[in-house]
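Shipment paperwork, digital attachment
Item: protein structure file
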Amino acid sequence: MSSALVIDNQRGIRATATTALLKAIGFEDVRVAGTATEALMGLRTQCADLVMVDSELADLPGDAVVEEVLKIYPATRVLVLTGVAGAAERALLGGAHGYLDRGASIDVMEYTIRAAMSGYAVFPQAWLSTIRRAASDPANPTHVLSRRECTVLRFLATGHSNKAIGILLGISNKTVSSHKMSIMTKLGFQSLIDLAEFARRHQLT
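Attachment content:
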C-alpha cells in the first residue's frame, strides 16, 4: 500500500496535493500535517513512501524536516513544495528528491510525483548551474557539520529548547547537548545569538 504525508500550512495546498496523490496517482493512504512538529511526531509512529513538505513552515524550515525524514526513513522519497528563491538549491543539498512550485497544477504535481517515485531527481533545469556551484562550494562553513548537527542547529536557531528538540528527534537531552556543543565548537561560537545569526546568514531558517 503506497502512503504519503503532505506537510503544508495552507489547507488548499494540502487538498490539491491529496487529490493528485489519491485520484491521479492512486496512493491508498494520504495523511496531512500543518506543522513540522505535527509531521515529525506522526512519522515516529508511521512511515510514508512519499513526503511532500512546504519549505516555509511556521515552526521549522522545511529543509530541517527533509533532513530528519531521511534520517528516520532513508528510503522515503521527499519533494519540497515552495515558491521561494533559492529553495531548489537548499532542497537538493538537504537530500530532497525534487521540487514543486506550490501553485503547480494537478497535472504538474502528478508528473513530478511519478518521476520522483520512479527514482528520478526532479529540479528546474535552469537552476542546475547554481545548484552545482552550491554543492561544490568548499568555503561553505555548514560543510563541517553533520546532517544531524545541521538539523539541531536549525531547531536551536528557531528557539526550540533542548528538551523540545530531543522529543521531536527521538533523542535524549544529553545527545542534544552533545550536538549543540559540537556545533558551537566547530563553528567557533560563544552564544546562541551567534548561532542564530549564522543560521540567518546562511538561509538555514
